[in-house]
């Protein structure tokens, strides 16, 4: 069974940086990890940054200019470099992947990011 495991979350102050990682249990021949999402308390889950199979990236909301999504296809790990963090970036961050064959969708368990002074 495919699993996605996020790591790298934590407690930081405004203006600081964090790098999140999402590791897949299978290779890119089985699952493609395509995006980062977040869900703040009391709010719906929203997309933050996406990357397609060719490496083209899309940033949503105010992630543009502050966050960088990248992927290591050899290790099948997705990264999210988050810079200049703000209070409003506080949320649980999830990665999302899709099966190469079929239509399965996978989510990680989430990693908590808290920005607080």
Walk me through what this model shows:
It is a single chain. Helix content is 0%, strand content 52%. The protein has 117 residues and is an all-beta fold. Strands 2, 4, 5, 6, 9, 10 and 11 form a seven-stranded mixed beta sheet that branches. Strands 1-3-8-7 form a four-stranded antiparallel beta sheet, with no helix packed on it. A hairpin with a 4-residue loop joins strand 7 (67-72) and strand 8. The termini are far apart. The mean pLDDT is 96.
Topology (elements, then pairings):
Layout: E1 4-7, E2 10-12, E3 18-24, E4 31-39, E5 46-51, E6 57-59, E7 67-72, E8 77-82, E9 91-99, E10 105-107, E11 111-115
Parallel strand pairs: 2-11
Antiparallel strand pairs: 1-3, 3-8, 4-5, 4-9, 5-6, 7-8, 9-10, 9-11
Short structural summary:
This protein has 117 residues and is mainly β. Helix content is 0%, strand content 52%.
List keywords for this structure.
seven-stranded mixed beta sheet, 117 residues, mainly beta, 0% helix
Rg from alpha-carbon coordinates: 14 Å
Distance between the termini: 40 Å
- Main beta-sheet strand count, sense and barrel state: 7 strands, mixed
Strand segment count: 11
Molecular shape? globular
As a percent range, the share of helical residues equals under 10%
The structural class is mainly beta
Low-confidence region ranges: none
- SSE succession: EEEEEEEEEEE
The total count of helices amounts to 0
Strand fraction band?
over 45%
Overall mean confidence score, pLDDT: 96
